């Protein structure tokens, strides 16, 4: 069963389809995965294989959460009235932001909307934009390996009153905006917890 699920998930990922766009066989694979207990070895093995199959790592090293899904052109909440062109990867303030694959840094900036942000062009043709960083540790033109630190998670720019997170956008080699959640294991949306709030409050006071 595990081998069959991995094969179906690879197909889902490599076609860069969202679950809604995916053929029924792939939707069945998603449903099958949901039947497996979240912490079981089988499910963890499948998720590990999915990550290896895409060649992409998460943009955050360590624990991360979902604070916003991909919904281009469709309002999701009061903060995203025109839709959401990326995903919000929530993590502890100061957590390591890492390169998702081998590539080169093509832009570093500090803007009112994105705060401290950077863009990496990956060797496989994909491009990723990381926004709201607390710090940036790379320069334009610098080559980075998958897993290399490129900065730290923060809430700069228009996220100053929000939770620490990376707003992540990804473009395909053809230049199309795609759902970043199709490239690595991204959990379901969860609200900012009281424990996280206290932890981040403490880190700001340190």
Describe, in plain words, how this protein is organized in 3D.
- 25% of the residues lie in helices and 28% in strands.
- It contains 4 helices and 12 strands.
- Strands 1, 4, 5, 6, 7, 8, 9, 10, 11 and 12 form a 10-stranded antiparallel beta sheet that branches. Strands 2-3 form a two-stranded antiparallel ribbon.
- A hairpin with a 5-residue loop joins strand 11 (165-171) and strand 12 (177-178).
- Mean pLDDT is 80; it is low at 13-24.
Q: Over the alpha carbons, how many angstroms does the gyration radius reach?
A: 17 Å
Shape call: globular
Largest sheet: 10 strands, antiparallel
Helix and strand sequence: HHHEEEEEEEEEEEEH
Extract low-pLDDT stretches.
13-24
Specify the structural class: alpha+beta
- Let me know the average pLDDT: 80
The percentage of residues in β strands lies in: 25-35%
Number of strands: 12
What is the CA–CA distance across the termini?
49 Å
Helix count, DSSP H or I runs of 4 or more residues: 4
Instruction: Bin the helical content.
Output: 10-25%
């Amino acid at each position: 069963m595990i081998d069959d699920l991995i094969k179906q998930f690879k197909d889902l990922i490599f076609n860069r389809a969202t679950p809604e766009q995916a053929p029924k066989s792939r939707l069945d694979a998603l449903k099958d995965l949901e039947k497996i207990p979240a912490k079981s070895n089988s499910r963890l093995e499948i998720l590990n294989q999915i990550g290896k199959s895409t060649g992409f790592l998460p943009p955050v090293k360590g624990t991360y959460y979902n604070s916003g899904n991909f919904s281009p052109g469709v309002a999701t909440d009061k903060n995203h009235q025109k839709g959401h062109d990326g995903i919000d990867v929530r993590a502890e303030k100061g957590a390591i932001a890492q390169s998702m694959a081998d590539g080169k840094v093509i832009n570093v900036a500090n803007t009112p909307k994105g705060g401290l942000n950077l863009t990496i062009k990956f060797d496989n043709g994909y491009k990723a934009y990381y926004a709201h960083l607390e710090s940036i540790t790379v320069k334009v033109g610098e080559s980075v390996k998958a897993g290399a630190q490129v900065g730290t998670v923060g809430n700069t720019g228009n996220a100053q009153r929000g939770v620490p997170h990376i707003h992540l956008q990804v473009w395909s080699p053809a230049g199309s905006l795609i759902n970043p959640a199709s490239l690595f294991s991204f959990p379901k949306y969860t609200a900012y917890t009281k424990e996280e709030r206290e932890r981040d409050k403490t880190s700001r006071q340190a």
